[in-house]
Design goal:
10 helices, 2 domains, binds zinc ion, alpha/beta, 7-stranded mixed β-sheet
Length: 307
């Protein structure tokens, strides 16, 4: 199974000609989950040819313009297709007013149900296959990071072993896959461990922006396959970052290192940097955590677990 992460934008505060505002889309088994939605998000979605009019869930970190101003257009245009499934939107309480006001003032025609879920710290969503946790951050406004964790799955079923043990193809296979012992016609018992490989670990994806550096972020994003984390400034501007409640790329790398993540993707760059200057952010981060990617708009990560 794989989970894809599409980086839709990497700029902070202001969209630039070649750098849209920070946003990411997760595609998982046909489900689309969007994280933040600034100006320009729609353009990247279109360029990537994602079926963005059918987004299932939107998670908003906080109520700063660079993270929400793309939302009205996206909600409106999503009505161009027939959809029966609702759209779930998660975020701070103020986001409800923002959506309602936009719908009213723009006389928006919306042909599907929007279900707003105010976010509290902790698990905010649990499906059969994954959870999403909201992690409070420390910014100039209430802000949440999000951590998507797939549940572990049973090991791969070995048809060879099942045949060798004389388990007939059919419902008994299904029961073994669910973890149940089964009794064969001849009275022998076969247990799941005889036909299943080791359990397959789920993938973890973490999205952290905007915040000052907090040492406890690492605990929550522990072991992420991918941590997308703001690295807005270079090391020399650490005092500025602290004052504005943002992080340097070095601090993002410290989180990644302490959390033992597989990969760090930097996002939410200050518009003060040209594309060429961004390499300083990457170099500084790599000194602390070598598996750092300087994300560019429309960069795609394919996260596969071992299974
Ligand atoms: Zn921002
Ligand atoms: Zn902000």
């Amino acid at each position: 199974m794989s989970l894809e992460v599409f980086v839709l934008g990497t700029s902070g505060m202001q969209p630039l000609p070649n750098r849209f505002l920070t946003s990411a889309m997760v595609r998982r088994k046909g489900e689309l989950l969007l994280f933040d939605c600034g100006e320009g998000t729609q353009v990247s979605l279109k360029m990537l040819n994602l079926h963005w009019k059918r987004i299932n869930r939107i998670f908003i970190s906080h109520m700063h313009a660079d993270h929400v101003t793309g939302l009205p257009g996206l909600l409106m245009l999503s009505s161009q297709v027939d959809r029966t499934e609702p759209l779930y939107i998660y975020g701070p309480e103020k986001l409800r007013d923002y959506i309602d006001a936009n719908r009213r003032l723009l006389d928006m025609y919306i042909n599907y149900e929007i279900i707003f879920v105010p976010v509290q710290p902790g698990i905010i969503l649990e499906t059969e296959e994954y959870t999403v946790e909201a992690l409070p951050l420390l910014h100039t406004k209430p802000c949440m990071g999000y951590i998507l964790t797939e549940k572990d799955r049973p090991g791969e079923f070995s048809v060879e072993n099942a045949n060798a043990l004389g388990v007939p193809c059919g419902p008994l296979w299904g029961r073994l896959q669910k973890g149940e012992d089964v009794t064969l016609e001849d009275g022998r018992t076969v247990s799941p461990s005889q036909v299943l490989g080791p359990r397959r670990k789920g993938v973890r994806f973490s999205y952290i922006t905007d915040t000052m550096y907090l040492s406890h972020i690492a605990k929550h994003v522990q072991g992420s396959d991918l941590l997308l984390c703001e690295g807005m400034f270079e090391r020399a501007l650490e005092a500025d970052a602290f004052e504005k409640k943002h992080m340097t790329s070095t601090q993002a790398a410290i989180v990644a290192r302490d959390a033992g993540v597989k990969k760090l993707g930097l996002i939410h760059y200050s518009p003060r940097y040209t594309d060429r200057e961004l390499h300083t952010l990457k170099e500084e981060a790599c000194e602390v955590f070598p598996e750092t990617v300087l994300c560019k708009d429309r960069y795609v990560f394919n996260l596969n677990n071992a299974g």
